[in-house]
Design a protein that fits this description.
The protein has one domain: 3-Layer(aba) Sandwich (Rossmann fold). It is built from 6 helices and 9 strands.
């Protein structure tokens, strides 16, 4: 467990819940977006901006996003040529926020939004050319419990969600599909590698970039997970 990672994520969570100037709209990637209370805000960290810009959206193909939040990545995927996009989130507020931005940007014909704990809401036969999760990579102490839906955006107690994602996600790919994970240097990279190996996967860094945030240098990382 990384004290720096847990502390950093805890500070960011407090900012989400205590910032009285948090707007109901924001601008990102040259677009305007709705932002609801209780939903992860892409304005406090560059993670959504970076990963959405880096993703190799399959033109004419299908895209599945775990943890859609405000819906930025799902909308951009549809606007970037994906013919079929599914956006999942465990938070009802995030699901509604994603739907609002899907309608706002007029991509309802290509984007389906579902409330789901990882893959639970998907039909068994659903397969995608690209499966992506900007994960809750902060590892909390052993006795930590996610008390609200918003906590799930930051913390993964025991890395149970990562373990399950690594086990189940390959079964959601088309034969030539790709599995990508948004992560960070404040996450437990060593544990991620062990869990990936247990699932028969080999992680490789697709792209990374360092940013200094509140006197902490963080490396944002996009990992590709392929069969070992």
């Amino acid at each position: 467990m990384s004290d720096t990672g847990f502390q950093r994520a805890s500070s960011l969570l407090r900012r989400h819940t205590q910032d009285t100037t948090r707007p109901g709209e924001f601008t990102l990637l040259g677009r305007d977006w709705d932002l609801m209370d209780g939903v992860f805000s892409p304005t406090y960290t560059p993670v959504t901006d970076l990963f959405t810009s880096w993703l190799p959206f399959p033109d004419g193909g299908s895209f599945l996003e775990i943890g859609s939040g405000a819906g930025v990545t799902a909308v951009v995927a549809a606007q970037s040529g994906c013919a079929r996009v599914t956006a999942l989130d465990i938070s009802p507020a995030a699901v509604e926020n994603t739907r609002r931005n899907v309608v706002r940007h007029k991509v309802e014909d290509r984007v389906r939004v579902l409330e789901s704990d990882l893959f639970d809401a998907l039909p068994p036969e659903d397969r995608y050319d690209l499966v992506y999760w900007n994960s809750n990579f902060a590892e909390p102490p052993a006795d930590f419990v996610n008390e609200t839906d918003l906590h799930h955006a930051f913390f993964d107690p025991g890395y149970d969600a990562h373990r399950r994602f690594l086990k189940e996600a390959p079964g959601r790919l088309t034969p030539e599909g790709s599995l990508l994970l948004g992560f960070s240097s404040i996450g437990n990279v060593a544990l991620l590698r062990r869990l990936a190996a247990d699932a028969g996967l080999e992680p490789s860094m697709l792209r990374s970039e360092q940013r200094q945030l509140d006197r902490t240098v963080i490396e944002f990382q996009l990992w590709r997970l392929a069969a070992a």
